[in-house]
Every structure is written in structure tokens, then in C-alpha cells.
Amino acid sequence: MKQSSTIDKSPYGIIAILLAGAFVSILNSTLLNVALPSMMEDLNVTETTIQWLATGYMLVNGILIPTTAFLIQKFSVRHLFISAMLLFTLGTFVASIADSFPLLLAGRMVQASGSAVMMPLLMNVLLSSFPVEKRGGAMGVLGLVMIFAPAIGPTLSGWIVQNYHWRTLFYMILPIAVLVLLFAFFKLKDTKEKVNLTIDTLSLIFSTIGFGGLLYGFSSAGAKGWDDVEVYGTLIAGVIGLIFFILRQYKLEKPMLDFRVYKYPMFALSSVISITLNMAMFSAMILMPIYLQQLRGISPLDSGLLLLPGAIVMGIMSPITGKLFDKYGAKVLAITGLVITVATTFSFSQLTETTEYSTLIIMYTIRMFGMSMVMMPVMTNGLNQLPQRLNPHGTAMNSTLSQVSGAIGTALLVSVMSSRTKFHAEEMIESAKATMTEQPSAEALAEMQHQLMMKATLEGINDSFLVSVFIAAIALAFAFFIKRPQPADEKKKEVSLTEELV
């Protein structure tokens, strides 16, 4: 992709505007989670229906992100970013005035269609603007946005919902989005030669079925169970769609999403580590609110505040780890960070009904400190091996895998928690029956069953964290094979993954 003269001379102004747009779009992705119960009551819809505000947003992102490699090559940074920001702002406005659920859902999906472009576009600009030896620091700043924005979302949302109407969440985002849009309109002045690219219709159809089916299937599995026809039906359709999509890309001279990025060993390795770590990361994000609010009776705001120090530490560490990456490479950082992640995740598998709030804060903060040393360095190390022409495809692939692995991690850990809770509940009830000497009253029996279910749920959460330990340990094992790559010389014969790792 031919870069603009503006980017070549001074990338910082453009990057600042892109970072601001990415920040509000990523913050928006987690902002509604705490507010869903209030919205459900206000709009008079069921829990299953209201979840579509989160599921629909994720689906639109997952379907559109694979097209971003094509969009980045086809359009200039200016046109693409302004279009994306305009869609995001329009969606935010529609959601802020929505007086019915269908209108609110439409607003959220329009928001998602804009936000899907933000991260791949920003990552591609960073890769194109900085030489390999300086990319770590630049990507560290991006890591701050990627990690800090979704992490503060629940805390901010909890405070707003506790004190104001849920519409304030959109009222707060809207002026920021308008401001970023105005800055982009007047400040982004890049130029780009017209590129004669057309999107392949079959690729778009297969991509939508493949990634959409996988995301919907995995995101539904936690609530509906793996044996639900809607779950395994969409998963099967997703797998078939994805296979056809991949085969189609290898037949095209200019693929929509080029899977040849996996010819480069360090990029392939970074994908494996990122997928497993992303799945492990969701354990605390999904299981902690259940433990804190349902088992411990801690308010949503206090639950969000517990996560805040970890978000702050991760935000502070991202630029620092970026600089360390430039100096020492990804291997030392990844191994150190993953050892911390595995140890702290194991400590979360030992939760009790009386674990101190302060202990939970410390454990979670240290865990986030460990993860901050892994995510962006590993991702940047993989992208550094790709030739310039494959940068849009590498960034689009990373963003797509982030969505899919998040959905898989959520589904897996929730289903483990549910099945193990049921197992422990049955075991505890049988044990309690065996020790009974007389039949308790109906009230006492109900109370006993409630207490046993609480204990069983706690054991189910601990078991789910243990699975998360195993997943993080897989990432740790792969981290020992990381090497500092050089940008690929496409004139040379490609090195196989086995040869590179050995």
C-alpha cells in the first residue's frame, strides 16, 4: 500500500486522532455490560433479548473485521477513518434517542460497523509509520488503548448507572465522537493513488457465514448449552463457511484476507500465543463478576472498582513494555509475563467465601501486570516478520482472531463452570442427605439447598479458573520458541515453521 506524504513526514498527528477514535470505540464495546439489567427493565424485554446488544455488536465486528484488509488497501486513511467515525457517531446518536429495543439494537449495530475498522486501520498506520526497531514503543501506546479502554468500561458504567439514567452512557460518548470526527475532517489530509480493487462477493458471503456462525455459536453456548441445535448448527455452518472462505482466498490473485501470513513462522506463533492468552484472559472478566456479585453480594460499582487498579497498571505498563520490547525482544517479556499470569490465575482457582476484597485486588492487579508484558510484544513480534504488503492482512487477522478467541474462551469457561457446578451440587446434596438424621422443615430445606448451590457455584468457578491455568500454560510453553524476526525478504525461499522454531 502506498502511504500518504503526511504519514511519511509526521505520523504523530494522524496517530493521535486514530488513537482517540479507537479509544471511544473500544470503550463503547464494554460500556453496556453493567447497564444491561437497567436497560432490560426500562425497555421491558427479557434477558435473552437484551443480550443481543452485546452479541449483535460482537457479530457485526466479527463479520466486518476480515474485510478491513481489503478496505485499507482500497481507500486512503482519511476516507476510511472519517467513514468509520461517521458510522460510529451516527450509531451512538440513534442509540441515545432510542425509545424501543429494535431502534437501540440498530444503533448498536451501526456503531459496530464503524468500530470494526478502527483497530486494524490504526495498527496498519503504526506498522507503516515506524521502522521495525521503533515499533515496540508505538505498539505499546496502542496496547494502552486496547487494554485500558475496555478495562475501565465496567467501572465507569457501574458509576453512571448507579447515579444516572443508562442513556447517559451514550450522551457521554457522543460529544467525544463528534469532536474526533471534526478533528479527522480538518486534520487528516493524506493522499493516495487510486487502487483498482474490487471485493470478491463469494469471499464476503463465506466470511460472513464462517466468522458469523462461529461467533454466534460460541457466544450462545454458555447460556444454551453445547447440545442445543441452534448452537451446534451455527458452529457447523461456521466451520464449513470458514473452510470455503480459506480455500477461496488461495484461488484469488488479490485475496480479501490473505492466509499466506501463516507462512511466516513468528506470525503463526504469535497467533497461537495470542489466542490462548485471550481465552485465559476472559476467565477473570467473566467469572469475577459472578463470584463478586452473586456469591459475595458486592455491588456492581465495587466490582468494577476492584478491576480498576489492574487496568491502570496495564495502561501504565503498555508503553514501558513497548520500549523494553524494542531493547530486549518479545521472548523474555512473554515468558516472564506468562509465568506471572499462570501463577496468579492458579491463585484465583483457590477462592473461598471469605477471600478478602483487598487480596482480590492485589491478585487481579498482579495478573494484569503479567498480561501487559505479553499481549502487544508478542503481537508486534509476529507482525514484524511480515512483508509490507501483508501488513493489512496481518492486522485484520489479529483483530478477527481476537474476536473469535474471546467468544471461544467465554463459551468454554462458562460451560465448564456450569457443568462443574451441577456436578458439585449433586455431590453435596447426596452427602447432605446421607448425614441427615431427621427430615428438615420446608424452609430449612430451601435454605440448605440455597447454601449448597452457592458452595457448588464457588467450586465451579474455581474449576473453571483451573482450566484457564492450563490454557495459559500452553501459551507459556509456546513462548519459549519466540525469536526476534527480521522483515521477510520475499525473494528468499520461505522457511518452514518447524525449521524456524528448531
TrEMBL record:
<dbReference type="InterPro" id="IPR004638">
    <property type="entry name" value="EmrB-like"/>
</dbReference>
<feature type="transmembrane region" description="Helical">
    <location>
        <begin position="110"/>
        <end position="127"/>
    </location>
</feature>
<feature type="transmembrane region" description="Helical">
    <location>
        <begin position="168"/>
        <end position="186"/>
    </location>
</feature>
<dbReference type="InterPro" id="IPR020846">
    <property type="entry name" value="MFS_dom"/>
</dbReference>
<feature type="transmembrane region" description="Helical">
    <location>
        <begin position="79"/>
        <end position="98"/>
    </location>
</feature>
<feature type="transmembrane region" description="Helical">
    <location>
        <begin position="12"/>
        <end position="32"/>
    </location>
</feature>
<keyword id="KW-0812">Transmembrane</keyword>
<feature type="transmembrane region" description="Helical">
    <location>
        <begin position="198"/>
        <end position="219"/>
    </location>
</feature>
<dbReference type="GO" id="GO:0005886">
    <property type="term" value="C:plasma membrane"/>
</dbReference>
<feature type="transmembrane region" description="Helical">
    <location>
        <begin position="139"/>
        <end position="162"/>
    </location>
</feature>
<feature type="transmembrane region" description="Helical">
    <location>
        <begin position="52"/>
        <end position="72"/>
    </location>
</feature>
<feature type="domain" description="Major facilitator superfamily (MFS) profile">
    <location>
        <begin position="14"/>
        <end position="487"/>
    </location>
</feature>
<dbReference type="GO" id="GO:0022857">
    <property type="term" value="F:transmembrane transporter activity"/>
</dbReference>
<feature type="transmembrane region" description="Helical">
    <location>
        <begin position="464"/>
        <end position="482"/>
    </location>
</feature>
<feature type="transmembrane region" description="Helical">
    <location>
        <begin position="357"/>
        <end position="379"/>
    </location>
</feature>
<feature type="transmembrane region" description="Helical">
    <location>
        <begin position="231"/>
        <end position="247"/>
    </location>
</feature>
<dbReference type="InterPro" id="IPR011701">
    <property type="entry name" value="MFS"/>
</dbReference>
<keyword id="KW-0813">Transport</keyword>
<keyword id="KW-1133">Transmembrane helix</keyword>
<feature type="transmembrane region" description="Helical">
    <location>
        <begin position="332"/>
        <end position="351"/>
    </location>
</feature>
<feature type="transmembrane region" description="Helical">
    <location>
        <begin position="400"/>
        <end position="418"/>
    </location>
</feature>
<keyword id="KW-0472">Membrane</keyword>
<keyword id="KW-1003">Cell membrane</keyword>
<dbReference type="InterPro" id="IPR036259">
    <property type="entry name" value="MFS_trans_sf"/>
</dbReference>
<feature type="transmembrane region" description="Helical">
    <location>
        <begin position="267"/>
        <end position="292"/>
    </location>
</feature>
<protein>
    <submittedName>
        <fullName>MFS transporter</fullName>
    </submittedName>
</protein>
<dbReference type="Pfam" id="PF07690">
    <property type="entry name" value="MFS_1"/>
</dbReference>
<feature type="transmembrane region" description="Helical">
    <location>
        <begin position="304"/>
        <end position="325"/>
    </location>
</feature>
<comment type="similarity">
    <text>Belongs to the major facilitator superfamily. EmrB family.</text>
</comment>
